[in-house]
Amino acid sequence: MKADGSDFKRLTTENNIRHFYPSLAPDGQSVLYSAFSADNNYEVYRLDIVDGSVDQLTNLYGVDNAPEISPDQQQLVFTHIPPATDKYQIVLADQHGKNAENIPGINGWDPTWSPDGKLILFASNKNGTNQLYTVRIDGSKLTRITNLPAIRGRSDWSPDGQFIVTYSGEPWKRELFIMNADGSNVRQLTPSGGNSQGPSFSPDGKWVAFTAYFDKYNEDNGCEIYIIRIDGTDLRRLTNNDYCDYQPRWGP
User: Fold this and answer.
1) How confident is the model over 100-137, as pLDDT tens digits?
2) Distance between CA 24 and CA 101 in Å, rounded?
3) Is 0.90 surpassed by the pTM of this model?
4) What's the rounded Cα separation, in Å, for the pair 225 and 29?
5) Mean pLDDT of all residues in 196-222
6) Quick one: which of 146, 173, 191, 245 could link to 239 by a disulfide (CB 3.0–4.6 Å)?
7) Which secondary structure element, helix H or strand E, spans residue 103, and what is its range?
8) At residue 83, does pLDDT exceed 90?
9) Do 212 and 194 form a contact (C-beta atoms < 8 A)?
């Protein structure tokens, strides 16, 4: 849909298959997502927005999700969860899903690229609690950047590289938090009481899109897509459906 909530249209057509974690390519011509393939098996797919064609990019057996293509559109990053393990891996592959390799020594989930393509932001519980980290694509310069009480994962980097937005909190009490890219100057972005989560920056870095329950709190299918300015003002609701709208990702 457009940034004002208009021109809402469906892209995937399989009613009996679950689709998750959409992310638009930097050129706006395609969308990556994870789809159910078989029991405990999700793979990464690319959908061409213009002609509707779909290509399966991974075939790794296990759960592959949270895919994103790099700013130069040459590499993919995604989470891979091998069968019968709780080791969430951050995997890099080429743009076609080939040559997939774990980032050395890194376990985590929900990766997203820095605007210059040099770093990956991701969540991990490597030190006992869920926090956000950054790492170079070769596995070097691993840096913890948050100290929030209940990080979930899905986060985003502002287009100018200056800010990071994430969400934290116990179930039904989650809020968005914005901070400098090094984790300093953390502040709550969303008004309390909306169970806000899954944030994504706008291309100009002035807005954040996210899921929340401000108008249908405590309803399982009550989540809608909202946007808010990065100073915490001008909260706007974009969707109004009888099902849950979640995991928004802003396009170019």
Assistant:
1) 999 999 999 999 999 999 999 999 999 889 999 999 99
2) 22
3) yes
4) 22
5) 95
6) 245
7) strand 101-107
8) no
9) yes
Rounded to an integer, what distance in angstroms lies between the CA atom of residue 90 and that of residue 167? 20
CA distance 159 to 184: 18
CA torsion through residues 247, 242, 232, 227, sign: positive
Cα separations in angstroms, 103 against 40, 109, 119, 211, 247: 22, 12, 11, 29, 24
| Token pair listed for 25 | 């390519």
Contact between 197 and 176 under an 8 Å Cβ cutoff? The reply is: yes
Q: What is the pLDDT of residue 236?
A: 97
Longest dimension (CA), the chain: 45
Degrees to nearest 5, angle at CA 8 with 216 and 172: 25
Q: Are 189 and 205 in contact (CB under 8 A)?
A: no
For the chain, the 3-state helix, strand and coil shares in percent, each to the nearest 5, are 0, 45, 55
Mean pLDDT for the stretch of residues 32-37: 91
**Is 125 strand, coil or helix?**
coil
Stretch (H or E) spanning 180: strand 175-180
| Two tokens, residue 177 | 């938090």
Average pLDDT over the chain, rounded to an integer: 94
Residue 120, Cβ neighbours under 10 Å: how many?
A: 24
In angstroms, the CA 135 to CA 58 distance is: 23
Place of tokens 């909202």: 226
- What are phi and psi for residue 52, nearest 5 degrees? 80, 5
- Reading the block at residue 83, the tokens are 């069968």
* Contact criterion met (CB below 8 Å) for 49 and 62: no
Mean pLDDT across 209-222: 92
